[in-house]
Design goal:
This protein has about 350 residues and is α+β, with helices and mostly antiparallel strands. It folds into 2 domains: about 150 residues, Beta-grasp domain (Ubiquitin-like (UB roll), Roll), CATH 3.10.20.30; about 200 residues, 2-Layer Sandwich (Alpha-Beta Plaits). The chain contains 7 helices and 14 strands. A hairpin with a 2-residue loop joins strand 10 and strand 11. Helix 5 packs across helix 7. The radius of gyration is 27 Å and the shape is elongated. It starts with a strand and ends in an 11-residue tail after the last strand. About 10% of the residues have low confidence. Bound molecules: FE2/S2 (inorganic) cluster. The site of FE2/S2 (inorganic) cluster has 14 residues, from loops.
Length: about 350
């Protein structure tokens, strides 16, 4: 489906005769661009193609954002098209070579969000030839998704530390509790884990079931990240101990925790949709950290940390049991340390 837009006030009448160029029949007429170009005349309009095959004909000289607005295509634009927020950014699938190079101001915004070369600001590009675009953000994107976000937001390879923590036996525990109590205890656990992560300088990625995934070193580098993750693990264990103590009368047995920590490369970025767009990471490092957390059951310990994480943190783990194992979906064996009580990491093991 093709629609037509223009700066004039007379609308589109496909198949009619051009008001400004009598005799011209090009299928889209009576529309004049802000500079007076008639879209019924070849060269006076450009085709803009959106995801899903939607197409519009925009007068030459208007920005893609203006074209979207005039055609009623929803498009994020928190700063109103002033080239500051980056929320209008689009991935140019076809026609990037026909665009003028980004101005220093536009390039500055693109650099701040770590945009790849085929991403441009829709409010700044004025295509003279057919262009196919894919808006990066949903039309509802708010300021939080804009250029004030960290450089990895658009997707980058980074060396980070990933921590997974899980409350042991919570399913059995919850079977004997009323729904209200289950929510109360779970939220209390999340509070403890979230505070430990925030306090150490990490980012809570997601709470799932009775566990949490957290990322460290997204901004400060892997060495700082791995140190923060170990600190968070210690704070979690201590927080859970305090919680067990204060709620002892409400529980048949203290809640336990299993934590896995691994450092390595991952693809990081803001992922999701609409309001559920948040910083996250994907890749082998994430899967490995998750697997290490699972293995705490097998090794009957609170924490399993990879050698990559301890070395990156500069933490001497030689006092803790060492194991070399193969993790599912990973070809290289991995060296780990199994730590029975996380609070022992302050003393370096025994
Ligand atoms: S609308 Fe804000 S940069 Fe384009």
């Amino acid at each position: 489906m093709v629609g037509a837009i223009g700066g004039g006030d007379e609308g589109a009448e496909p198949g009619g005769e051009c008001l400004y160029h009598p005799g011209n029949r090009w299928g889209l007429v009576r529309i004049r661009s802000p500079v007076g170009a008639c879209v019924g005349r070849p060269g006076g309009a450009v085709r803009v193609i959106y995801p899903g095959g939607r197409e519009i004909l925009a007068p030459a000289g208007v920005s893609v954002l203006e074209a979207s607005r005039q055609a009623g295509v929803p498009h994020a634009s928190v700063c109103g098209g002033r080239g500051r927020c980056s929320t209008c950014r689009v991935r140019v699938l076809k026609g990037i070579e026909g665009l003028e190079a980004a101005s220093p101001a536009e390039q500055g915004v693109l650099d701040r969000i770590g945009a790849p070369p085929n991403v441009r600001l829709a409010c700044q590009i004025r295509p003279a030839e057919e262009i196919s675009i894919y808006p990066v953000l949903s039309p509802e994107a708010q300021a939080g998704a804009g250029a004030d976000q960290p450089g990895y937001s658009g997707g980058q390879d980074r060396e980070i530390t990933v921590l997974f923590a899980d409350i042991r036996g919570f399913t059995t525990f919850s079977e004997k509790k009323l729904p209200y109590d289950v929510v109360f205890f779970l939220n209390h656990c999340f509070e403890v884990m979230g505070d430990a992560i925030d306090g150490a300088g990490g980012t809570v990625n997601q709470f799932t079931g009775d566990g949490v995934m957290a990322l460290f070193g997204m901004g400060g580098g892997s060495e700082e990240g791995s140190r923060q993750a170990l600190a968070a693990a210690g704070a979690m264990a201590e927080g859970l101990r305090e919680m067990n103590e204060s709620l002892a009368e409400e529980m048949e047995a203290p809640l336990r925790i299993g934590i896995g920590i691994h450092t390595g490369p991952a693809v990081v970025g803001r992922m999701g949709r609409g309001e559920a767009l948040y910083p996250t990471a994907v890749g082998d490092t994430v899967n490995t950290a998750s697997r290490l957390q699972d293995l705490t059951k097998e090794y009957s310990c609170q924490l399993i940390v990879s050698a990559q994480a301890t070395e990156s943190a500069g933490f001497d783990a030689t006092g803790f049991p060492r194991h070399e194992l193969t993790v599912r979906n990973r070809t290289e064996p991995i060296v780990i340390r199994a730590i029975g009580d996380v609070r022992d990491i302050q003393g370096g093991g025994s």
